[in-house]
UniProtKB/TrEMBL annotation:
This is Heme-binding protein. InterPro entries: GlcG_carb_metab_protein, PduO/GlcC-like, PduO/GlcC-like_sf.
Length: 147
């Protein structure tokens, strides 16, 4: 049977909720209005929280950042540099894929070295989105587990 199936861990609902709450609390402490999304290891939305006044377009962008981060296991702010030396067709092809977000605010969530989900933040400047995502990540990861 072990040749036919794998056992994977995924983020829990409680942990996903803690992550979006921590991200929003950090945003509020900075006077920001953001959207915060956490997806499970398969990219399915587990938790979402929107600050009053956060940009409506940023709802989908936050989810896409989380989806991108869990899909590739890479923080979304690293895509620009990663694609810089690739052919233009590859850069444009990937950047134009549905649900792909190649700018900061998406972080994979790891547990015991295994990708179990991701957090995505949108609504503020890129550096602020990243800071809020890091706050959300810190609420659910053990020391040394951050990507």
């Amino acid at each position: 049977m072990d040749q036919l199936a794998h056992s994977y861990r995924s983020i829990t609902t409680a942990a996903a909720q803690r992550a979006v709450e921590a991200a929003v609390a950090h945003a509020r402490s900075l006077g920001l209005a953001i959207n915060a999304a956490v997806v499970d290891r398969c990219g399915i939305l587990m938790a979402f929280l929107r600050c009053e006044g956060a940009p409506l377009h940023s709802v989908d962008i936050a989810i896409d950042k989380a989806y991108t981060a869990v899909s590739f296991g890479l923080a979304t702010q690293h895509w620009d540099a990663r694609l810089a030396e690739r052919p233009a067709t590859v850069r444009h092809g990937l950047m134009n894929r549905p649900h792909f977000a190649g700018f900061g605010g998406g972080l994979p969530i790891l547990y015991q070295g295994q990708r179990i989900g991701a957090i995505g933040i949108s609504g503020a400047a890129e550096a602020e989105d990243i800071a809020c995502a890091e706050a959300g990540l810190a609420a659910v990861t053990a020391p040394g587990e951050q990507p």
